[in-house]
Design a protein that fits this description.
Order of helices and strands of chain A: HEEHHHHHHHHHHH
CATH class of the largest domain in chain B: Mainly Alpha
Radius of gyration of chain A: 23 Å
Strand content of chain B: under 5%
Largest interface: A-B, 89 and 96 residues
CATH class of one domain in chain A: Mainly Alpha
CATH architecture of the largest domain in chain B: Orthogonal Bundle
Helix content of chain A: over 70%
Number of strands of chain B: 0
Oligomer: heterodimer
Shape of chain A: globular
Structural class of chain A: mainly alpha
């Protein structure tokens, strides 16, 4: 069997081993890509800088968590609600699925570009639309106070359909027997939902949400195209912060330490994902 | 009579409700298309012109005149096809190997590649490619896009090969087929939908990728998303051509998706559902 897996594993390993070794080495060194001197060993100074001295890093960490929690929660609630409402056979289900797929696969640069035009404070259609119900006008992406929610809306627009489609697929695999016996026992529809549907659906939803949370933590394209971290540092999430440290300031040593911290956060989330997946698995 | 009327009413209500749920998605794409087809006057009107009065293709003409769009499209296609082909050649057999040997420790490697932020690979690679004289080449772009496509193909194909009952292959093995022969003649044909879907998804994610090409490609090798990102400026309001460019770069992936949407939904669900 190794014949089949070996080439792919070797390629992935080669692609990943160098970055891992390089990053671990650099994270305890001070080195600028623009400098001619060789890296200087500084111990844990880069990590100390991140957690103690650098307010910008802590700002980035906080913004990343804020964006992730907000976007994931919105998508979870909307996505599951829509799936429950659509969980019945109807004509046009295929068309609906096809339409729901489009936001997920559309090119993020194109999505971000059109949202920027829609968010334009004077001529954008968003202020016109919220104006119809008596709200606004807002400065959306140029107002530091609401720019993260504005970006979370874009992410939610993109990814809520994924939660809906996954939940619908999960609903389709639910067994009928529990419902039949509950009906015989005289259970009401809300009771059946609360005590049968939700528990059975939980593994599906938990896994979908953790995957979304991990991807939200890594969101780059939308933010980079729409705000590039601004206004000020109001949308400088970890990924943007990292990009600036590496490719604007060439501070490779510090950037590598940030990568280590960033990766550990994602790793903890993923281990959580694997554990919940096994614990909640009912098959 | 009354019963049918009520049923019809219910149906209409549900259809209306369904439409309402899809409004955010539909309106966005409607707005993108309408911005690209409206005149400057209509695009800059306040309140916005929701239903265009006169349509024009001027914005599209402008995009083609003012930028070498076809050349960037060639870059996107070369990188997308190259990385997808490599991902399939390496990833399909790997998915088969993992599914048959049940060594899911290897799947863990895929998961790690899946969760790691692109930038953590990109910083070391960028410096390495520079040292090797590979920066600003197709090779660098194709190799970097492989880190997205390969885990995707392995993951999806793993699921598809698990769905092929081992008995089918055992029959081939008893009849004197080699392991490789049964992979080639039995398992592979049965999982053709998986190969198509994982290939298309790998291509789409390569096509859509911004960050790798921003860092690794010079002006000559820019992919479409980078080219569009570079000409973007919201200060001078030039919405028609921008919307036209946005539509042009995303239209190919939207069409590909519609072509195989049924299978894509199944794979997405499998990715999230597997116990």
């Amino acid at each position: 069997m190794p014949v089949f897996t070996l080439p792919a594993v070797a390629v992935v390993a080669v692609l990943m081993v160098f970055p891992v070794v390089f990053t671990l080495y650099m994270s305890v060194h001070s080195w600028y890509a623009s400098s001619l001197t060789s890296p200087e060993f500084v111990g844990l100074a880069n990590f100390k800088r991140a957690f103690v001295d650098d307010e910008r890093f802590r700002n980035a960490l906080w913004l990343t968590i804020y964006f992730t929690v907000l976007a994931t929660a919105l998508q979870l609630v909307l996505g599951v609600a829509v799936a429950l409402l659509l969980n019945r056979p109807f004509r046009g289900k295929g068309v609906m699925r096809a339409i729901f797929l489009l936001p997920m696969v559309a090119t993020p640069v194109a999505i971000a570009l059109v949202w920027m035009m829609m968010y334009n404070p004077t001529l954008g259609v968003m202020n016109y639309l919220v104006g119809l119900v008596g709200l606004g006008p807002y400065n959306w992406v140029s107002n530091a106070a609401i720019v993260i929610p504005a970006l979370a809306v874009v992410d939610t627009w993109e990814w809520t359909p994924l939660i809906t489609l996954i939940t619908l697929a999960g609903l389709a695999t639910l067994p009928v027997e529990p419902y039949e016996s509950a009906q015989i026992d005289g259970a009401s529809t809300p009771q059946m939902f609360r005590h049968i549907t939700l528990p059975l659906l939980r593994p599906t939803i938990v896994v979908a949400v953790l995957f979304r949370a991990i991807d939200c933590l890594k969101t780059f394209d939308i933010i980079y195209v729409m705000t590039q971290g601004g206004p000020g540092t109001a949308t400088e999430t970890l990924n943007i912060f990292l990009y600036l440290q590496a490719f604007a300031f060439f501070n490779i040593g510090f950037a590598s330490a940030v990568v280590v911290v960033y990766f550990l956060i994602l790793l903890v989330m993923s281990v959580g994902l694997m554990i919940t997946r096994q614990k909640t698995s009912w098959q | 009579m009354a019963v049918t009327a009520r049923r019809l009413g219910n149906r209409l209500a549900f259809a209306g409700f369904l439409f309402l749920l899809m409004v955010p998605t539909l309106f966005f794409f409607y707005w993108m298309i309408s911005l690209s087809l409206k005149t400057d006057v209509d695009n800059l009107a306040n309140p916005p012109v929701l239903i265009p009065r006169d349509l024009t293709l001027k914005n599209y003409a402008y995009v083609f005149q003012s930028s070498p769009l076809p050349r960037f499209a060639v870059n996107s296609v070369v990188v997308g096809v190259g990385s997808t082909a490599l991902a399939l050649i390496l990833g399909v057999p790997a998915g088969y190997g993992i599914a048959r040997s049940r060594r899911y420790g290897l799947a863990l490697l895929i998961l790690v590649a899946r969760i790691t932020p692109a930038l953590s690979f990109l910083i070391p690679w960028f410096l390495l490619f520079q040292q090797l004289g590979l920066s600003n080449t197709y090779h660098a772009l194709i190799i970097s896009h492989l880190i997205i496509g390969l885990p995707l193909v392995m993951w999806i194909m793993m699921g598809f090969f698990e769905g092929v009952h081992p008995d089918l292959e055992d029959a081939a093995l008893i009849d004197g087929c080699s392991r490789f022969g049964s992979f080639l003649r039995v398992a592979l044909p049965l999982t053709r939908p998986g190969i198509v879907v994982s290939g298309i998804l790998a291509f789409i994610f390569s096509w859509n990728n911004l960050i790798f090409a921003v860092v690794l490609a010079g002006p000559r090798l820019q992919t479409l998303p980078v080219a569009v990102f570079n000409v973007m400026s919201f200060e001078q309001i030039n919405w028609g051509p921008l919307a036209a460019a946005a539509l042009l770069i995303t239209a190919p992936v939207l069409l590909l998706t519609l072509l195989v949407q049924r299978h894509i939904v199944a794979s997405l669900a499998a990715g999230g559902l597997k116990g």
